[in-house]
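ok so i was messing around last nite and threw this chain in just to see what happens. nothing serious, just curious
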Amino acid sequence: MPDRGAAAAGRRRRRVVRSVSAAAVALGAALSGACATTVGGAGAPAPGEVAVYRAELSASAAAEVRAEGVELCRESMASMVVMVRGFNAFVARLNVAQSYPGVGDLDEKARASLIAGADQIRPKITATAPVDVSTPARTFLESTARLENAIRRELSAGLNPVSGQWSRDKQRLLDVCGGYTPLPATSSATPRPSVPSTTSARPGG
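result:
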């Protein structure tokens, strides 16, 4: 006679297998449904959001460019103060002495101030600096080099036109920088030399 306990255990195992199979089918259907679900267009930015983002990028880039302009102007104005002071001291002595030997070492000091000032300004003229500042800054550096060369050659009568152009180029840069940063009173002072028309006492005049 069959064991009733064994028969009952067999029936329980079949029910468990059917339950597990049903659960597996249900889980598979759930996963299949989840994979089949598509993502709607809610993740795409709205046109207005794109415009705002682009405007923010543009404003940020403009702010960076302006910051470079401010930095270039500040360095230019600070350097100009030293340049003008050294050049004016030299010219004042030259007007009295009427010759380069009579100025002592003020000609060398004037040249040194021009060279040092230009060396401070030059690194601030970057490829991304605003053109309305970098262009007159480059022109001013070119005039500075010509003025330094004129002093080195000990020009007297020839110093007037060179220094005059240097002063005008300096003022153009200052005029532009007025839109970037307040101008200190001393930086706008333009040297007005009255260089003697006589030739230099040493060669090169």
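not much to say yet. The two ends are 139 Å apart (CA to CA).
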